Amino acid sequence: MITASSKIAALGLLSSALLFTACGKKGEVVPAEATLPEAPDAAIQKVIREFAQGNGGILWQAMPASYQSDVNSLVQLAGSKFDAELYDQSCALISRLGDVAEKQQAFIFNSALAKSSEGEKAQFQQALPAVVGILKTLTTSDLASSAGLLAFDGQQFFDSTVSKIATHANGLSKLSEQAVGLSDYVAVVVSVIEGSDTEATLQIGIPNQSAETTRFSKVEGRWVPAEMAAEWAAEIAGAQAKLEAMSVESMAAKKPQVMGVLTMIDGVLAQIEAAETQAQFDQAVQGAMMPLMGLMMMGQGMGGGMSAPAVPSPTAPSGLPAVK
Q1: Could you tell me what percentage of the chain is helix, strand and coil, using 3-state DSSP and rounding each to the nearest 5?
Q2: 63: which residues sit within 8 A by CB, 6+ positions away?
Q3: Cβ distance 144 to 91 under 8 Å?
Q4: Helix or strand or coil: residue 115?
Q5: Is 180 strand, coil or helix?
Q6: Which residue has the higher pLDDT, 238 or 173?
Q7: Chain centroid, CA 87 distance in Å
Q8: Which of 201, 204, 116, 166 is nearest to 14 (CA)?
Q9: How many angstroms separate the CA atoms of 114 and 248, rounded?
Q10: Which of 283, 303, 290, 300 is nearest to 260 (CA)?
Q11: Rounded to whole angstroms, what are the CA distances from 304 to 11, 81, 251, 297?
């Protein structure tokens, strides 16, 4: 059912991408029109319906201009803080992981290490193509290299990468028996319960689901969730402060160790990819545990390592409710 606990969930992996856990290359895109209705119900309904039809760029256009600038600046700042070689090699491993998962999915489903019920296994089998599709989309997006971070452009990213992710979003609904797919939001109906020129309480619903009531505020001509409007400046300032505090010297000192672990993980992935039996696969996966634990411990010692502080989700201004 639709819930009020989150601002948006149909694009959950996208938030991860903008938290700098994914990477990519630029592509050719054609920006869409940024015209949105003045009325809050019409504006939010347009954003949700267009996104449900695969127009990821509409989410970026629904953001106030200052929010867009904040996100662009924050991603570019991350690009200036991360060690280029470490970041790029990490991204390459993420990309390879998607290829290996696609090739060895039969072994993944039948692994004794998974400890999943038959129902959970069936759900994951149905969702895996979407998961792999999203992973591949992100690893061929604007975030896959330190150079890409430095030149990050939110409109281009949303026009291209987010639109592609939207095509895979319905597949993720297979992970839950009661999930609503993104395509269901093509029929969304948004209505005003009460409002003024700068504040509005909207009811957002789709057929056969309970409606959600959400408060919105008008910021720079764009309607955004009131909670986001109230917290945006503080969240951005906090994320920027954490990035600024990242120790380049500490990262450089531990770089040889991290590179060594990444090389080990690359070798383990080669073994997993080459596995021809379930036993070989399970043994190779077990072999990956130690390098991964080592990398996590190093990341903590480097003050977060390759991860960046959380930033407010750029998708939230659409008002699209969460689904589960």
Answers
A1: 60, 10, 30
A2: 71, 222, 224, 314, 317
A3: yes
A4: coil
A5: coil
A6: 238
A7: 17
A8: 166
A9: 38
A10: 290
A11: 24, 12, 10, 10
Q: Cα–Cα distance between 5 and 221 in angstroms, integer?
A: 25
Of 303, 304, 25, 242, the closest CA to residue 149 belongs to 25
- Show the DSSP H helices in 104-225 as ranges: 105-110, 118-138, 146-150, 154-157, 163-172
Spatial distance between the Cα atoms of 297 and 158, rounded to a whole number of angstroms: 33
- The residues facing 180 across adjacent strands are none
C-alpha 274 chain-centroid distance: 30
Residue 174's pLDDT band (cuts 50, 70, 90): low
For residue 322, what are the β-bridge partners?
3
With tokens 């789709």, the residue in question is 206
pLDDT tens column, 77-131: 999 999 999 999 988 998 998 899 889 988 888 886 666 677 777 778 888 888 8
Q: Are 168 and 130 in contact (CB under 8 A)?
A: yes
- Rounded to 10 degrees, the C-alpha dihedral 12/13/16/18 comes to -90
Interior angle at CA 188, CA 187 and CA 191, nearest 5: 135
Is-contact 143 48, C-beta < 8 A?
Answer: no
pLDDT band at 293 (very low <50, low <70, confident <90, very high): confident
Judged against a pLDDT cut of 90, whether residue 47 lies above it is answered with yes
Q: Supply the angle between the helices 84-103 and 118-138 in degrees, to the nearest 10.
A: 140
CA distances from 44 to 41, 211, 309, 312 (A): 5, 14, 28, 19
Measure the CA–CA gap between 154 and 75, rounded to whole angstroms.
Answer: 9
Q: Give CA–CA dist 181/228, Å, rounded.
A: 24
What span, in angstroms and rounded, lies between the C-alpha atoms of 149 and 167? 24
